[in-house]
Prior knowledge:
about 300 residues; three-stranded mixed beta sheet; Spore Coat Polysaccharide Biosynthesis Protein SpsA, Chain A; globular; binds 2-acetamido-2-deoxy-beta-D-glucopyranose; alpha/beta
Amino acid sequence: MNMKQRTIFLISLNSLAILVASVIFFLIFIVHVKSPFEVSPSSMLELKGSSARFGILIGVLTRADLYAHRHFLRMLYGIQSSPLAEIDVKFVFCNLTKPEQRILIALEIQRFNDIVILNCTENMNSGKTHMYFSSLPRILPRLYNYVMKADDDVYIRLEPLARSLAPLPRSDLYYGFVIPCNSMNPFVEYMSGMGYILSWDLVEWIADADIPEFYRYGSEDKMVAQWLKMGNKAKNRFTNKPAMYDYPGTNGRCSHELIPETVAVHRLKRWDQWSRVLEYFNVTRQINDSKLYHF
Length: 295
Ligand SMILES: *[C@@H]1O[C@H](CO)[C@@H](O)[C@H](O)[C@H]1NC(C)=O
Ligand SMILES: *[C@@H]1O[C@H](CO)[C@@H](O)[C@H](O)[C@H]1NC(C)=O
Ligand SMILES: *[C@@H]1O[C@H](CO)[C@@H](O)[C@H](O)[C@H]1NC(C)=O
Ligand SMILES: *[C@@H]1O[C@H](CO)[C@@H](O)[C@H](O)[C@H]1NC(C)=O
């Protein structure tokens, strides 16, 4: 290299260094300027940790044709929430059987996206509950900590429900209203079909294990307890009495008067029963005055 070549070489090295430095500076600048507008991964973790809301899926097992009743239940659950838990309510039924269902239920899905259609023929004690739990891990777009199976004649109060679950184990849990009516021992017999909860690990177990698959038929609530017993599962159990019960006067010792700490009232078959429950829990109390209506 002669003197001239050497100078040119050094100059180009210099400009390269300046170029690299500018690029680095520019990158730092972008990151710096952007950061106030973006949540960094570490603060996202903090947000998650501090809220620590757990997830509950409530599947209301019902029939495709009960459009008006679904609409009513949607209102009841649509106006409830809990700061403790993220709670999704979905309506679960078997295969559609009539042409109009394909249109009317597609309409509901379009508007509410809260329908689950299982691959079964409509039934109560011939495997629908098994199909429900065992399908979930495959079909749900997200995980939940707990999955509930609920009847469509039960009123569930979401905030007391979440509060009762918050201190309980997140795994190997079987929660509900233990039968017989007067029993307080959740390790004997089974949780009433009005509404019982399984932790997610048990839902996965039902999906994978042979025992539930083999014993699909029979009273659905009894069968769930049977699976858990045979599989030596659900070491954690919780019977929520007196907060869960049958509507006053409808079912002997499973019934009692409405009480403020209620989580679930079951056997609501008539409008006068529903309205008495809603009135008791002050559900419509905050309605504002308006010229548009009068009571
Ligand atoms: C539904 O189940 C039947 C067996 O009972 C099976 O042949 C069919 O492929 C399933 N359909 C869907 C959509 O999963
Ligand atoms: C339910 O419908 C699906 C899709 O049409 C069909 O593949 C399946 O065989 C039906 N299952 C039953 C049990 O009728
Ligand atoms: C409903 O509201 C009334 C009046 O504020 C109150 O006394 C009662 O305890 C409330 N009921 C429940 C179940 O919270
Ligand atoms: C009643 O009015 C208050 C204040 O305007 C409003 O925040 C609230 O949502 C209203 N309640 C209902 C049930 O419309």
